[in-house]
Write a structure and sequence with these properties.
homodimer, 6-stranded parallel β-sheet
């Protein structure tokens, strides 16, 4: 079996650490694993497959000899290091938003448009986490009849804001239980026992950058330029796993039965839809795994040709780390 | 000034206690206040306007001499006591779901269809809490152009399940912080750091009774029989105030500017919509008051003639107690 030299750029963050875990779980054919991070994290020790590795500072010279670089850093760092990665002859599978809408860069959810990895010119982009989870949940529907429109409201976990999110939620919960001061550093307002309808930056039309990703990235992933999406993104006091309430409008009218049957057979999805037994997707159940749970499937009552559903998936795994490793697996297959 | 004898049926519950507070705040012209509850609560002392009152067991004889009975009990109890209340000559302003869809009973949000109280034959119904808050947020739009359809996803606080909801959330949060057992009595699953897409009972078509209220009650309140609503109701770990992400589709196309201007002038609403200054509705800010906060107003991107917005309101107050007292105020005006 051919082995590959793999680097993780941003190895010490939430997604970087998860990438290391997913590489192990999936028994990725790794020759050397190189852990790269900022100067601040250089020297840290991390364990991979029982071996202790030392985190190195990422520099332009860090990528020589690498076959694959998994990007778990910011968009700015991704942009800064991409030329050096490509020049070194590695393929950069980047989780940041830096290259997602670049027409030269495939934007891949392996179960949906895995073939697009072949079009890469050195960079493959990982989509936004809510977009991945929503599209995973509706892809069975898209195969039955092309999706025309989506109306989505997200319920996004604090870990979507990085490793600091869960720490801030835990500290605020502790302050509420024990009667201390509430501190807000990661989120603009208290998130414990609150909801913040603000993820990303606001655009002139009132949408956030995060909300527009579902339409912009959805079009590219589904190869459907006319897809129209209205999305409202909300941060909720959940540690891990994003959930989405979404109405899906298709070209032809679908029955609930055929949608349920299609979701049940779909790769990467689990149909959790038995209301009588109180079975429906919940973030508590989907955390720390790769499967997107799909349930509450019913006919939309507002518009024709609509199906309304609810889904939950771990955005650090399928929404980020796992999706990137899956793209890397397609590269080496 | 004429004074009225008022009873609260279910005075010791979350909504009943809030009704007493709202009567005080609004300086309702009360002659006698009679606090009624189950045998279990009889004998409890509660304070109203500085006077100590004793809770009495509700029986068929409890309503003699009363002018208004505010109902904060279950639908079953409302149905059981309604004949005695009407026979005693009182008007029953009931917060339960018992009579909402009864064609003989007006279903009233005072700021929307206050005139309907005049049609009462002894019973006035208070709508569902999420329905009240959503309709309060969109009524300015309805006045600009009749609403045809709504696609709504709710983020409902634990206090919507009664006084036990916040106690259960607090106990679960404490268990998470201190490392104890998570107990679930009020909710079917852990609600702390989780989301439960299940409020009410499931119907054959996959919707819950709670989800259907927005369409069924919305039609009656707005006097719009053709209104179509798709709603997904989700319990979130927030103590108080429900929030709703809603897309509103009207007969004619509206601009964001005219909608914002209309909401800003609307009774019972506060326009909180200045993204550049991070101003948007949040449940933390709307709790313990009567105003529904409306923000994130923007053009819907999926369908024509659509406006998408986000709103938050205290469901124990405007969603229940305040709305009932407001109906009573219209009765005595």
């Amino acid at each position: 079996m051919k082995l590959y030299n793999v680097a993780i750029l941003g190895a010490t963050g939430e997604v970087g650490r998860e990438m290391m875990k997913v590489l192990t779980e999936r028994n990725f054919p790794v020759a050397e694993l190189r852990l790269l991070a900022s100067a601040r994290s250089a020297g840290k020790k991390m364990t991979y497959m029982g071996k202790e590795l030392t985190v190195e500072e990422a520099t332009e010279d860090s990528f020589k000899g690498m076959d694959i670089v998994l990007g778990a850093a910011s968009a700015d760092l991704a942009r800064a290091f991409a030329p050096a990665i490509v020049k070194a002859g590695a393929v950069f599978v980047d989780n940041s938003s830096a290259f997602r809408m670049n027409p030269e860069v495939p934007l891949v959810v392996p179960e949906i448009n895995g073939d697009d990895v072949k079009l890469n010119k050195g960079i493959i982009s990982n989509p936004n986490c809510s977009t991945i989870i929503t599209l995973m949940a509706v892809k069975a529907i898209h195969k039955l009849s092309p999706i025309q429109k989506l109306v989505a409201s997200t319920y996004q976990a604090v870990s979507g804001a990085g490793a600091g999110g869960p720490i801030e939620l835990a500290a605020q919960n502790k302050a509420i239980v024990e009667g201390g001061e509430i501190e807000c550093k990661v989120f603009p307002y208290q998130i414990a026992e609150n909801l913040i309808p603000h993820i990303g930056s606001f655009l002139d039309d009132g949408y956030t950058t995060e909300e527009m990703k579902m339409q912009n990235e959805g079009r590219k992933i589904l190869h459907q330029d006319t897809l129209k999406v209205t999305c409202t993104c909300v941060r909720v006091p959940v540690v891990r796993s994003h959930s989405i309430s979404v109405s899906v409008y298709t070209e032809r009218d679908l029955t609930v039965e055929e949608v349920k049957a299609a979701v049940a057979k779909e790769e990467g999805c689990l149909l959790v839809d038995d209301p009588a037994s109180k079975k429906y997707p919940m973030p508590k159940d989907t955390s720390d795994q790769d499967i997107v749970f799909v349930g509450r499937i019913r006919k939309d009552l507002a518009f024709e040709n609509g199906i309304t559903l609810w889904c939950s998936g771990d955005q650090v795994r399928k929404g980020a780390a796992t999706n990137a490793v899956q793209s890397a697996q397609l590269l080496v297959k």
